[in-house]
């Protein structure tokens, strides 16, 4: 089972990330994953045409596509332009999803908070508990803001709040998810929430600098990237696929 994850496209008229999206989707069309999850921040500044272009690109894939919003998304535009891409996009309320593919369950929890850059999982724990209640198969849990400390202060200020309550909720379930898979950070990063692996997907927009423990603000040399998760029973291996771009200034 191959689940691709792309994140943080941040499409804007002046950015090259739509071209990066096209390159990623072109690669995925040939690769043929069993599903694609987009973990938020599709378009910046409420650019309606951007949502249309992202939808057109995603519709060219021959697999189910599931979407979460990020803090940068305009939820109304996302609903109106992308409803045909993901049947789980709701007319109102949080954009959670739950999908089963050949014995693997994919959960998406919309932890965005209107008008804020941080996320908060607490209001959505009742939904998560009911969605997970009857799941006995392996599961992957997707969110936009990650529920762990990245170590980059500016990003940790806008992470997902109430991660301890999330861990308590998950531990009360019969089976822990194989991993929690997020976006928002614009870098691939790997950590844990309790014993659950947490990973952030690289961005299709330019990556963020690695501002760790007061180290110098070095120029970013990372390429945009995305993840391919291979799941076989309870085995999960996640692969980083990078997309070198000739236009690093965009
Ligand atoms: Fe974000």
Automatic annotation (TrEMBL):
Calcineurin-like phosphoesterase domain location: 1-188
Record-linked InterPro entries: Calcineurin-like_PHP, CNP_phosphodiesterase-III, GpdQ_beta-strand, GpdQ_catalytic, Metallo-depent_PP-like
The keyword Transport appears for this protein: no
Keyword set, alphabetical order: Hydrolase, Iron, Metal-binding
Matches recorded under Pfam families: Metallophos
GO molecular function: hydrolase activity; metal ion binding
The family this protein is said to belong to: Belongs to the cyclic nucleotide phosphodiesterase class-III family.
Name of the protein this chain belongs to: Metallophosphatase
Record organism: Rhizobium sophorae
């Amino acid at each position: 089972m191959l689940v691709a994850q792309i994140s943080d496209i941040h499409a804007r008229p002046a950015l090259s990330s739509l071209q990066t999206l096209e390159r990623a989707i072109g690669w995925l069309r040939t690769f043929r994953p069993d599903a694609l999850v987009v973990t938020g921040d599709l378009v910046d500044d409420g650019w309606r045409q951007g949502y249309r272009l992202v939808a057109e690109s995603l519709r060219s894939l021959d697999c189910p596509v599931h979407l979460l919003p990020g803090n940068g998304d305009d939820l109304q535009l996302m609903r109106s332009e992308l409803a045909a891409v993901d049947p789980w996009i709701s007319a109102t309320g949080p954009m959670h999803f739950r999908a089963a593919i050949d014995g693997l369950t994919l959960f998406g929890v919309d932890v965005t908070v209107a008008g804020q850059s941080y996320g908060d999982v607490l209001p959505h724990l009742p939904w998560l508990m009911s969605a997970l209640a009857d799941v006995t198969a392996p599961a992957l849990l997707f969110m936009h803001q990650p529920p762990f400390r990245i170590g980059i202060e500016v990003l940790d200020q806008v992470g997902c709040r109430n991660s301890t309550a999330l861990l308590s909720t998950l531990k009360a379930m019969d089976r822990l998810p194989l991993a929690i898979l997020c976006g928002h950070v614009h870098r691939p990063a790997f950590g844990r929430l309790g014993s659950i692996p947490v990973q952030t997907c690289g961005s299709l927009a330019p990556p963020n600098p690695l501002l760790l423990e007061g180290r110098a603000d070095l120029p970013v040399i990372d390429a945009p990237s995305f993840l391919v998760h291979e799941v076989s029973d309870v085995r999960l291996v996640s692969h980083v696929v990078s997309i070198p771009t000739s236009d690093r200034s965009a």
